[in-house]
Design a protein that fits this description.
4-stranded antiparallel β-sheet; mainly beta; globular
Length: 276
């Protein structure tokens, strides 16, 4: 089910604000932030490439952008830089990708080479200072924090693999990195994802027409087919009954866009009733 008449070339970075139930997401290629309330969908053009919504606090939206971590004020339309991307990646060849807010003042995000000629990185932004903790990743995605741990599930979409990154107690360094789920044999490309309060993990599969559900051990327990080839990310509603899935029409041929007209929209899935 397409819940909004909004289409993004590369819809991504979705976030549901629990206090208001508003839904936030971005169109990476068109520098646009979308905010869906129960009554309207507002769009905000920004002067930087925004890639993920990290947190929302009364009209203040924390974002990952081409320059690092940003704060966007929906009331004034002003975008301000909180923490600059590491200098090595401060060029037009690189941009941020998926990201997560760990706590107030701690953000972890991925950086990628737009042309995929070089590896990107995992960056920790803590107390307005950024540093690289891993530089052996091409397309960083997913960024799911397993509750009660300092573990992050981070995909490399190019390698079709989800890694488990174990961080130090202060989220300063990576203690261990291991393969959590290898999907390369199935040729499945993991993109963005989310986790429920009871540990149900959902990951969008780019070019897979579906979202898969996994347990915390990395076992696939269910899958939800959707009417678009390129789902990109997902977020649960406040009651955790429904899943909102962003998608893209980036790279699709005209015939594919005609065949899958909902590409680029947000698809709603009932994950409570369809769960096996």
């Amino acid at each position: 089910m397409n819940i909004f008449n909004i289409y993004a070339e590369l819809g991504e970075g979705i976030y549901v604000d629990k206090s208001s139930s508003n839904i936030y997401w971005v169109d990476i290629f068109n520098n646009t932030l979308f905010v869906a309330t129960p009554f309207t969908v507002d769009s905000y053009k920004v002067d930087k490439q925004v890639t993920a919504v990290l947190h929302v606090d009364d009209g203040l939206v924390y974002l990952a952008s081409s320059d690092g971590i940003e704060l966007f004020n929906t009331k004034t339309g002003l975008l301000s830089l909180i923490d600059k991307i590491p200098d090595f990646f401060s060029s037009e060849n690189y941009r941020s990708n998926d990201a997560v807010m760990i706590s107030d003042g701690i953000y972890i995000y991925g950086v990628m080479d737009k042309n995929l000629n070089n590896t990107g990185a995992i960056v920790v932004s803590k107390n307005k200072q950024s540093h690289i903790v891993d530089d052996d990743i091409f397309i960083p995605n997913t960024f799911i924090n397993i509750p009660g741990t300092n573990d992050l599930l981070i995909s490399d979409s190019m390698q079709c693999t989800i890694f488990k990154f174990q961080f130090s107690k202060k989220w300063d360094v990576v203690i261990n990195k291991s393969v959590w789920l290898d999907l390369s044999k199935e040729e499945l490309t993991p993109d963005g994802g989310c986790i429920s309060s009871d540990g149900r993990i959902f990951v969008a599969i780019w070019d897979g027409y579906k979202v898969i559900e996994l347990d915390t051990d990395g076992n696939i327990v269910d899958e939800f087919m959707i009417p678009v080839p390129r789902p990109t990310n997902c977020a649960l509603d406040v009651k955790e009954d429904k899943l909102f899935v962003t998608s893209a029409y980036e790279g699709l041929f005209d015939r594919q866009r005609k065949q899958y007209p909902l590409s680029g929209s947000i698809i709603e899935i009932d994950v409570r009733s369809e769960r096996c």
